[in-house]
């Protein structure tokens, strides 16, 4: 895929290009768009069209899923540095420090747009995820694009712009480490990184307010903060879903492709323990999507009916414990180091993220013993 923003012509109808047909096609176009403003605009358009029903299918079951790029297209106007060389942001005590904080927030939101569309394109079709999965992450992507747009606009109001400062290049690292596993992607990006954002946002808001920038403080407090709670909630929701999918005898459970992490040891009777997260063996049977010709309404409807069966269910305490233990295993494997308190318990709880999920991960294990 080319890294240039050719997507705009395809979607706007310029020339002979046709607009993307499925939500995954839109996601791939957005990931291939380099300009951050255009990326956010196209994401908003795609999410709006999808949620109002103007895009008929999440993906086309008649053709193999196209993989997303290993790294999304990014504008060369933003100078990227290794995290170790990125300048310190400061604590917002000066106008320059607050600009650096605001620029960093805009940078994070721009990458969050790519992360949201990547999860749609990378995992949605191969795992035959239900329509609600695409609904949730289209909304998340739309939110992240709006967050970037308002933060970028605020930078301009303050006499700066996105790209005026260098930014660190480490935001895609965890996406690369979890590119083979939706379970790991949800755990690390949406239940660790998004939740960490909830922990630090109140302090960030107070720094802008203390510096006399009430407009930015209110923007973060009234627009971005409450929506970030829903993004963390999406991660928790779909992590649970994957853990329950095979346990509930779902007909799509066998569609998990090789090398995708899954909760294969969840007890069917709601009891027992989980000791590890297993990987599907490479020599196992390969999952295939139902094949249908374009316009074959009966086959398309069959796919939609199968997707509709993938509903979240109420789960008992024993099964919830198993899900949480799986979460601990996945985070310890894919996230470097312990989680950093203090935690924003109230916001995390609003996202359905109880302390049992994350507090045990705030300690290091040394020679079999947990130490703070």
TrEMBL record:
InterPro entries: DUF455, Ferritin-like_SF. Residues 1-20 are annotated as: Disordered. Residues 1-16 have a biased composition (Gly residues). It comes from the Eukaryota. Pfam families: DUF455 (PF04305). This is DUF455 domain-containing protein.
């Amino acid at each position: 895929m080319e890294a240039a923003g050719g997507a705009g012509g395809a979607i706007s109808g310029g020339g002979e290009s046709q607009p993307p047909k499925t939500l995954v096609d839109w996601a791939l176009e957005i990931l291939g768009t380099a300009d951050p403003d255009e990326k956010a605009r196209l994401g908003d358009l795609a999410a709006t069209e999808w949620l109002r029903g103007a895009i008929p299918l999440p993906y086309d079951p008649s053709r193999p899923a196209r993989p997303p790029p290993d790294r999304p297209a990014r504008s060369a106007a933003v100078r990227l540095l290794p995290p170790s060389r990125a300048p310190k942001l400061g604590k917002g005590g000066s106008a320059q420090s607050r600009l650096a904080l605001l620029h960093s927030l805009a940078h994070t939101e721009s990458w969050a747009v790519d992360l949201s569309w990547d999860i749609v394109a990378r995992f949605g079709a191969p795992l035959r995820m239900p329509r609600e999965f695409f609904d949730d992450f289209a909304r998340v992507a739309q939110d992240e694009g709006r967050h970037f747009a308002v933060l970028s606009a605020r930078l301009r109001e303050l006499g700066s712009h996105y790209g005026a400062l260098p930014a660190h290049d480490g935001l895609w690292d965890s996406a690369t480490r979890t590119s083979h596993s939706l379970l790991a992607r949800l755990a690390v990006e949406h239940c660790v990184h998004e939740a960490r954002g909830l922990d630090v946002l109140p302090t960030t808001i107070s720094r802008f307010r203390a510096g006399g920038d009430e407009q930015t403080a209110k923007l973060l407090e009234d627009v971005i903060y409450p929506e970030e709670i829903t993004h963390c909630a999406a991660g928790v929701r779909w992590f649970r879903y994957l853990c329950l999918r095979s346990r509930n005898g779902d007909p799509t459970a066998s569609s998990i492709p090789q090398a995708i992490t899954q909760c294969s040891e969840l007890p069917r009777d709601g009891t027992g323990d989980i000791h590890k997260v297993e990987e599907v063996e490479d020599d196992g049977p390969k999952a295939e999507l139902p094949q249908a010709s374009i316009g074959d309404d009966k086959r398309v409807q069959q796919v939609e009916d199968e997707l509709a069966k993938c509903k979240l269910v109420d789960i008992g305490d024993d099964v919830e414990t198993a899900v949480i233990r799986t979460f601990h295993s996945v985070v310890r494997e894919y996230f470097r180091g312990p989680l950093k308190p203090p935690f924003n318990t109230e916001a995390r709880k609003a996202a359905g993220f109880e302390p049992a999920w994350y507090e045990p991960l705030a300690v290091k294990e040394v020679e079999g013993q947990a130490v703070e």
